[in-house]
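[recover] target loaded
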């Protein structure tokens, strides 16, 4: 028995290469429930991060009462982390949305489904008649199921004909997709989690995996505890647990000034090239662009980079040497890169490092352009992310024709005169008044978008009809015209795909509370009431349940890189483990990693994009692209470093980054309702370095006003261990709190501004030119001490927010936190053979898929 508040990563089960993975089944049952009381266990996977740990939900008397890891799942081998164990369902359904709400005389008022949906459909029809489909926009999520996104994509693109559909994935992993598209021609994770088992070195670029994918971090900790541990290199301005592990492993912690990743990466690449740590044969056979890359990075000597990034030149050399001399390197990239101003450029340089060394498609040579949200991969695959379904290219007429065929609609019905609209642009259109109906599902933009004062102004517009579909009355719901109560995880059925391309089925364990309905049913209800139809007058979309939608999606994925045709609900249910795509009837166990043969989906007929200039975002035309003759080779794309637009100055002398802590998920709608997690990180704080604190006369726990050019927050100070010149704010805390600490949920419909404490009061509406991902880690702030503190800041001591003063009391477990760890040797099912996936280039003039395995 242990708990996952203080023992976040659990008992070590040391692991060495080539051995079967040790099993450790973690389970947690609600207070007072014994394992013998459980009526049944229902198969699922955790939806509180992109790891997608295989699990089973304990059901008793029609309620979810516990969770345990699935021993046979290749993703987690039975392990679960704090969020999965304590945050998967709210402690009580007391404040769940159970009935639709509509605004009557300014107040959100309970109503029935028919009234709410009629209200939506009436508005929708009149807007379509008066202003056409471009008046409609959908802002969705990385947290619904595949079937729901695909249904929404069909409704918006084929049914209504609007290109305005994107997800909060724009804030999350738009850069992951963009970087893979630019380098390899398509979204699709080259690597696999099994690469952790074989690698000699692990590089984490702007990724605090210890707190944000705790179970994957356990996997690495087990390797580090084993006989041939890899070296770890951490690239993060904060002293995270990842950074500590890097130093302990004999690796390096590079702590660049925020916003200087591109310079650092150019420096690393230069070292790899000048030291000849490159695979010339691989480069010649499988890549384009080496000469330009070499010439761009040439001036990025370790000394020059050291002065830009403020890291020791010697550390740059050592990190490059580790990358350059290890046999098998695994890299992961996440928000420290993605939410920055040269996001796609810097992430592409990580791709370049792997290409230069020919390190792709081999066990241990994984590249994981990480996802964050549990189902972000599906948002991207299904085209609910400001792209077209099946990684299709909006600028390729043949791809449009395929979709028109599949959906049985006219090609002209599918908007493709320009790229699908990205979320930041959707919000801009709403601000300008051309988008008049904004349907928000499973995301809380009144907390999670940058520059919240502006977001509130937009949501308040009288000419914007706002629909919010959520399980809770969020900060965003307070601005809605209609609120639709959604069923959540465990209350509905569907599939989703983790960052390692692994698909899990989540079955319905319990009934949704009250009248809450699955998002799929809500979208289908809208489509039916709107009477959306295909060319032959059949209902569009044609399916009526999750499994039907899944089958529809399988057809859409057929022949594409993300081929799902070998999967079925039954197989996913019976397999005992998730299965990684591409998965075809010929390769029913899926594919552990991509690009084993060094052939990439860059052929003009198959690629998802013709690419962009990394500095400006300028698009490459089809003609220009064809002229390059990529022929299945990957692109080594280069870019000079440019400084961020907002850098610290005299008025705002500190660089402010934002991000996460281990105990909370995003805007805390679930984790804030778990007593165990809430108590571990109850309120927000700002983290600053001891030297900066001393200069500003700030002590631990003091109340501090953090100001940027956009707004301010008032929070206690944690004197932490980050680098000088930077501060960090967790972005989890909006204006809602279970215990009323923030004044309770906003009472007035238009009153979201009472207690400034959300990190996004400070951030700016700016985005990466290629991926359009907002720059959450780039703002300049100043700190003003407001009042002395009476107690230490409410920041956890267990992760990167640990205080520099070791005397500050440690985070403790409180409440119902007991976790049972069963250590065993249950053998997981045979992992998909490695590698199973090779990649053929279609002959000119054929439409053959890029995914046909050769073997
Ligand atoms: N506990 C928890 N886990 C989660 C989530 C959660 O909310 N809570 N959310 C999930 C989601 S959706 C996501 S997207 C992931 C995010 O997972 P991560 O990306 O790991 O988390 P963040 O804390 O946002 O940022 C990671 C690190 O980037 C560093 N950083 C900031 N600026 C820079 C920079 O300029 N350069 C470099 N190199 N590093 C920088 C920060 O110091 C921080 O430690 O987590 C997923 N997992
Ligand atoms: N400053 C700053 N801002 C950030 C970030 C940062 O690092 N710093 N990170 C960005 C990133 S990476 C992300 S992913 C976003 C996350 O930002 P959001 O998406 O706004 O955060 P969540 O709290 O996860 O909101 C998801 C909502 O969906 C609801 N929900 C959950 N499941 C379901 C379901 O099945 N159906 C429906 N209808 N609703 C459901 C939840 O109750 C919740 O209200 O924030 C972004 N914003
Ligand atoms: S690592 Fe992610 S998926 Fe796994 S239990 Fe934790 S939150 Fe859930
Ligand atoms: Mo995210």
């Amino acid at each position: 028995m242990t708990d996952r508040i203080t023992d976040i990563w659990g008992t070590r089960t040391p692991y060495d290469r080539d051995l079967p993975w040790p099993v450790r089944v973690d389970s947690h049952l609600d207070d007072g429930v014994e394992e013998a009381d459980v009526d049944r266990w229902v198969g699922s996977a955790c939806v509180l991060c992109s790891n997608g740990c295989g699990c089973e939900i304990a059901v008793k008397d029609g309620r979810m009462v516990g969770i345990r890891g699935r021993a046979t799942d290749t993703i987690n081998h039975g392990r679960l982390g704090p969020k999965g164990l304590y945050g998967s369902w709210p402690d009580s359904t007391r404040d769940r949305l159970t009935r639709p709400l509509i605004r009557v005389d300014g107040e959100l008022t309970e109503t029935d489904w028919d009234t709410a949906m009629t209200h939506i459909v009436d508005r929708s029809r009149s807007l379509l008649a008066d202003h056409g489909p471009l008046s409609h926009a959908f802002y969705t999520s990385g947290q619904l199921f595949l079937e729901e996104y695909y249904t929404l994509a069909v409704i918006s693109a084929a049914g209504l004909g609007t290109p305005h559909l994107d997800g909060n994935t724009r804030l999350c992993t738009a850069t992951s997709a963009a970087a893979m598209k630019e380098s390899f021609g398509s979204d699709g994770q080259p690597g696999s989690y099994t690469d952790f088992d074989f690698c000699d070195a692990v590089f984490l670029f702007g990724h605090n995996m210890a707190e944000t994918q705790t179970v994957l971090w356990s996997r690495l900790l087990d390797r580090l505890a084993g006989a041939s541990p890899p070296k770890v290199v951490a690239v993060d301005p904060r002293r995270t647990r990842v950074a500590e592990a890097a130093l302990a492993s004999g690796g390096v912690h590079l702590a660049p000034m925020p916003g200087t990743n591109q310079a650092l990466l150019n420096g690393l690449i230069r070292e790899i090239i000048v030291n000849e740590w490159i695979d010339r044969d691989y480069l010649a056979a499988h890549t384009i662009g080496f000469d330009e890359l070499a010439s761009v990075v040439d001036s990025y000597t370790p000394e020059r980079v050291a002065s830009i990034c403020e890291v020791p030149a010697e550390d740059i050399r050592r990190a490059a040497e580790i990358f350059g001399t290890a046999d098998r390197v695994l890299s992961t990239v996440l928000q420290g890169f993605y939410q920055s101003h040269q996001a796609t450029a810097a992430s592409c340089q990580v791709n370049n490092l792997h290409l230069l060394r020919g390190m792709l498609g081999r066990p241990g040579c994984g590249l994981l352009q990480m996802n964050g949200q549990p189902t972000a991969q599906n948002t991207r695959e299904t085209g609910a992310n400001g792209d077209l379904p099946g990684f299709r290219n909006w600028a390729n007429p043949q791809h449009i024709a395929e979709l028109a065929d599949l959906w049985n609609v006219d090609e002209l019905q599918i908007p493709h005169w320009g790229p699908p609209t990205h979320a930041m642009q959707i919000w801009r259109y709403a601000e300008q008044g051309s988008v008049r109906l904004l349907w928000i599902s499973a995301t809380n933009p009144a907390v999670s978008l940058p520059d919240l004062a502006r977001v509130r102004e937009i949501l308040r517009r009288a000419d914007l009809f706002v629909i919010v579909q959520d399980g809770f009355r969020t900060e965003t719901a307070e601005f809605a015209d209609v609120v639709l109560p959604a069923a959540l995880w465990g209350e509905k059925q569907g599939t989703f795909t983790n960052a390692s391309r692994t698909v899990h089925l989540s079955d319905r364990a319990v009934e949704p509370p009250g009248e809450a309905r699955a998002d799929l049913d809500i979208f289908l209800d809208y489509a039916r009431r709107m009477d959306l139809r295909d060319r032959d007058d059949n209902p569009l979309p044609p399916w009526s349940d999750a499994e039907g939608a899944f089958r529809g999606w399988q057809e859409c994925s057929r022949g594409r890189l993300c081929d799902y045709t070998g999967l079925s609900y039954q197989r996913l249910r019976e397999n005992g483990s998730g299965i990684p795509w591409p998965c075809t009837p010929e390769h029913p166990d899926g594919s552990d990693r991509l690009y084993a043969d060094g052939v990439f989906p860059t052929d003009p007929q198959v690629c998802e994009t013709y690419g962009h200039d990394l500095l400006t975002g300028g698009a490459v035309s089809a003609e220009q692209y064809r002229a390059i003759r990529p022929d299945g080779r990957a692109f080594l794309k280069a870019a000079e470093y440019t400084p961020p637009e907002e850098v610290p100055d005299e008025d705002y002398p500190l660089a402010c980054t934002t991000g996460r802590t281990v105990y909370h998920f995003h805007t805390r709608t679930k984790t804030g309702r778990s007593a165990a997690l809430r108590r571990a990180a109850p309120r927000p704080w700002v983290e600053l370095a001891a030297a900066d604190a001393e200069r500003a006369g700030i002590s631990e726990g003091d109340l501090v006003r953090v100001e940027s050019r956009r707004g301010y927050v008032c929070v206690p100070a944690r004197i932490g261990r980050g680098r000088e010149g930077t501060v960090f704010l967790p972005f989890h805390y909006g204006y809602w709190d279970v215990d009323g600490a923030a004044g309770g949920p906003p009472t007035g419909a238009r009153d979201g501004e009472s207690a400034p404490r959300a990190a996004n009061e400070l951030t700016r509406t700016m985005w990466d030119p290629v991926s359009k991902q907002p720059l959450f880690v780039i703002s300049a702030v100043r700190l003003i001490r407001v009042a002395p503190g009476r107690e230490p800041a409410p920041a956890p001591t267990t992760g990167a927010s640990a205080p520099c003063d070791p005397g500050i009391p440690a985070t403790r477990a409180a409440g119902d936190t007991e976790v049972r760890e069963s250590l065993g040797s249950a053998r997981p099912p045979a992992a998909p053979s490695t590698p199973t996936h090779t990649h053929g280039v279609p002959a000119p003039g054929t439409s053959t898929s890029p995914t046909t395995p050769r073997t």
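[recover] notes: The pocket of iron/sulfur cluster (ligand 3) is lined by residues 46, 48-49, 51-53, 80-81, 83-84, 213-215 (CB under 6 Å).
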